[in-house]
Design brief:
Layout (H helix, E strand, L loop, with lengths): L5 E9 L5 H11 L3 E13 L5 E6 L2 H11 L7 E4 L5 H13 L5 E3 L14 H11 L5 E2 L3 H8 L7 H12 L6 E6 L6 E7 L4 E7 L9 H14 L4 H17 L15 H5 L1
Parallel strand pairs: 1-2, 1-4, 4-5, 5-6
Antiparallel strand pairs: 2-3, 7-8, 8-9
Helix pairs in contact: 1-7, 2-3, 3-4, 5-6, 7-8
Amino acid sequence: MSKIIKTLTIAGSDSSGGAGIQADLKTFEEYGTYGFSALTTIVTMDPDQGWHHNVYPVDAAIVADQLKTVFAGGPVDAMKTGMLGSVEIVQVVETALKNNRQTNVVIDPVMVCKGEDEVLNPESANAIRDLLLPLATVATPNLFEAGVLSGLGKLTTLDEMKEAARLIHKLGTQNVVVKGGKALGGDMAIDIFYDGSEFLVLETAKIEPAHNHGAGCTFAAAITGGLANGLSVKDAVVKAKDFVSAAIRNGYAFNEYVGPVFHGGYRLEQ
């Protein structure tokens, strides 16, 4: 290997391994990159309470120390954020990105855990919108997050996804992917890519059973891996769609509550 390609995830821990920092690092490895990490939150799921999620933010000063460690080697080739957990952590991330002139920034504006339908911390969501989206090469909200960021509320149609993408682009991000996935009606899993002038509709047939826990994190991490390897944003998004579809096809039922994607699925299918 002539050059080590470096990637970074700033995200929460999912002990079930499907999502969060675990999903990101597995995906980075599949893309042939060296993954760094800064842990922001610890998420646990309680099987005795219907898989209820508990979220424990890491102190912002500890997040800052982790990022100081990572950036001691200079900027990475590409990076992403996931669950950040508090306004203070968002501010720490903003400062680190600016101070280190980091490029190829993927902002995955995680606001809820899968299976939940309320914003974990509305103030953090606002901080991501105001502080991090203007620094983003690409933002990757799901339908719920796109509805919050755009102010449109619940999105149920392709046209509404496109309008949300337009509004989010106006917040400062260079490119937007609205992840519709299986949430829209019909037989296709649909995502929208918008670069400020043109839309690209990405469609694949819905997969059943849908072992898709971690699909959103994995998609954003795959875009990060693609950018780190020199792909254009559009090409990185297109490949990430294929990557995450393969991960869902190769997912499995972990227990009665959740079925995670398998991050090596794309490699196994090649």
